[in-house]
Amino acid sequence: MSNGMTRREREVTDINEIKSILDTAKVLHLGLVDGDEPYVVPMNYGYTMVDGKLTVYLHGARRGRKLDLIRANPKVFFELDCGITPFEGDIACRYGITYESVMGRGKAVIVEDIEEKKLALSVLMKTQTGKDFDFEDKMAEIVSVIRIDVIKYTAKRRPMPKK
Ligand SMILES: Cc1cc2nc3c(=O)[nH]c(=O)nc-3n(C[C@H](O)[C@H](O)[C@H](O)COP(=O)(O)OP(=O)(O)OC[C@H]3O[C@@H](n4cnc5c(N)ncnc54)[C@H](O)[C@@H]3O)c2cc1C
Questions:
Q1: Residue 88 CA to ligand 1 centre (angstroms)
Q2: Which of 33, 35, 80, 134 has a 20 to 30 A CA-CA distance from 158?
Q3: For 60-112, what is each residue's pLDDT tens digit?
């Protein structure tokens, strides 16, 4: 299995550029393993980046398929993207789309500690809105929080072609 990126010149390695993608995308596609089948679920997210280490937070209802799958197998993969602009070409194969994206693999942890849940919800709201929110215990108790300890991530950008 190849771990290298095709079109290597499109790889984004600058941490501030990667954070800009994470700040902009808003929706993450979470890939889970259901026995021998994949399962993908779109979700809003928050993140922290400390010394290049990426941690992702998700929240939702306290039950459902994705939680059952994480309990059975915490291995996850995710993708998020932004900057989507279609462009035209003179022939079909020069049509395309601009994008910026981040993909990564990690281990999902269902967070039970109430202080960590409240912190995660604040991080999530900061990523989603740019604003600071505080949470009371009862607000955190009624939702589930998933933390993804990201093991490896990559970022890629396809810019608008020069005319
Ligand atoms: C843009 C976007 C952002 C979202 N943000 C969040 C979020 O932050 N937190 C959150 O908990 N949920 C969010 N959702 C909803 C999320 O996609 C799931 O529907 C929800 O989390 C329930 O997932 P589950 O695995 O527990 O499914 P269950 O409720 O257990 O559903 C079981 C079945 O329902 C179907 N199903 C579930 N979700 C979807 C879906 N989105 N579209 C079509 N079929 C579906 C699938 O066939 C699945 O097997 C978002 C959805 C979208 C489109």
A1: 33
A2: 33
A3: 999 999 999 999 999 999 999 999 999 999 999 999 999 999 999 999 999 99
- pTM passes above 0.85: yes
89 Cα–ligand 1 center, Å:
36
pLDDT in tens, 84-98: 999 999 999 999 999
- For residue 23, count CB atoms less than 10 angstroms from its CB and return exposed for 0-12, middle for 13-18, buried for 19 or more: middle
Of 81, 84, 78, 80, the C-alpha closest to 40 is 78
Domain boundaries, the chain: 8-155
Q: Is 89 in the pocket of ligand 1 (CB under 6 A)?
A: no
Architecture of domain 8-155: Roll (2.30)
List phi, psi (to 5°) of 140.
-80, -30
